[in-house]
Write a structure and sequence with these properties.
With about 100 residues, the chain is an all-alpha fold. It is about 85% helix and about 0% strand. The chain has helices at about 5-25, 35-80, 80-95.
């Protein structure tokens, strides 16, 4: 990332971080679970419209950061490795989409 890009993304990062948290508030505990994806797509569309592709890039960076921190916390609390937790996530993905 060059300095200009870093500055440009940094300007929208606080807004996108708040949008990420708002999305997670809407997604956690939603039922039926299929609505989670719908909510995420709605937010992605809004971010794209308001912030362009830079906004989507920062949204991905923000959500990845939140997810990584939570995986690290879970690993510490349970005594499992990051890899074991990610393997469980991958197994869940496979179980929900066995044909992929």
């Amino acid at each position: 990332m060059d300095e200009d890009e870093n500055r440009r993304l940094g300007l929208i990062a606080p807004d996108i971080s708040q949008i990420s948290i708002d999305l997670l508030r809407k997604a956690v505990g939603v039922y039926p679970e299929e609505r989670m994806g719908e909510e995420a797509l709605n937010i992605a569309d809004e971010v794209l419209e308001q912030y362009g592709t830079d906004g989507l890039r920062v949204l991905v960076m923000s959500l990845t950061g939140w997810a990584a921190v939570q995986i690290e916390k879970e690993a510490q609390m349970t005594g499992r490795t990051h890899e074991a937790l990610l393997d469980d996530m991958d197994l869940t993905r496979f179980e929900t989409n066995p044909d992929i």
